[in-house]
From TrEMBL:
Residues 4-192 form the CYTH domain. Pfam families: CYTH (PF01928). It comes from Metabacillus rhizosphaerae. It comes from the Bacteria. SMART domains: CYTH (SM01118). Gene3D superfamilies: Hypothetical Protein Pfu-838710-001. This is CYTH domain-containing protein. Signal peptide: none annotated. InterPro entries: CYTH-like_dom_sf, CYTH_domain, Uncharacterised_YjbK.
Amino acid sequence: MSQEIEIEFKNLLTEIEFQKIKTAFHIEDHEFIKQENHYFDTPQFSLKELGAALRIRKKQEHYVMTLKEPAKIGLLETHQTITKEAATEMIKTGQLFAGQIVDQLRKLGINDKSITYFGTLTTMRAEKNHRNGLLVLDHSRYLTVEDFELEYEVQDEAKGKVIFQEILNELEIPIRHTKNKIRRFYEQKYKEMG
């Protein structure tokens, strides 16, 4: 298990803005790597209500289960590496394997037996180091939605915010209040459920 604090800034993009960033940062198509995010919650969306999220991410042939929960600054992420077989079983049944994630869920007051698999969000992602941070360009598809997003992951929140706003200003991209992927996924799921 590993834990880390995630501090990131994000902004939804139009497809034209996405292409503009690719050009400005010299990002080639072959630099994008496919990753699948498989999302879980209780039927009552208990994790969502706590501002938390649970996913299994498949990146190349590696599988990591991550629980994100609010922290004083950013999000606390708890990571647990799992096998392909474990990931497949959890997606199929919704039943989590014992480990650090289940322990952390219990600390949050969530019954791990009530967890359900909700669906998959697929992202083509490119990453570039930029001014002591990580610039992330995502093209995602989930349910009936396709979206484009810029993220900037940093260690220093104040400096990161300034740099992120400079990037958007230089490329004439408006700042848009952007929810994280899992929130966008669940809001779309709500819409489609009727």
